[in-house]
Specification:
The chain is an all-alpha fold. It has helices at 2-13, 18-50, 55-58, 71-103. The chain has one domain (2-93).
């Protein structure tokens, strides 16, 4: 899945100017780092729940679901990711439309 997404990104960005590609790659790297951080934190928390004397034995849940992830925090994270994706698509579409406009022969 990640490979396919990478190929799609590469195809869409092939005709973009260097500055725009660089900006989008920087955004991608930041999003990847945020995603990895979220996964690591969730894994670490869930491991702490199954360890003897871990946080799972000390607390009764405190508004969290079985996975230990606060539902409100998860919604906020997903909302932020969706908004960044919408902005990126809008930016890509705008750039593509400008590129098409410049490529059309003047009559």
């Amino acid at each position: 899945m990640l490979h396919i997404l990478g190929e799609i990104k590469a195809m869409r960005r092939r005709d973009m100017d260097k500055q725009e590609r660089f900006r989008l790659n920087a955004e991608d790297m930041k999003e990847d780092a945020d995603f990895r951080k979220m996964i690591i934190e969730a894994l670490a928390y869930n491991v702490s729940l199954i360890l003897p004397g871990g946080e799972g034995e000390k607390s009764g849940g405190g508004g969290r679901d079985r996975t230990g992830i606060d539902p409100d925090a998860m919604k906020a994270l997903e909302s932020g990711q969706a908004e960044r994706a919408r902005q990126r698509v809008t930016s890509n579409n705008h750039h593509h439309a400008q590129q098409q406009h410049h490529q059309q022969p003047q009559q």
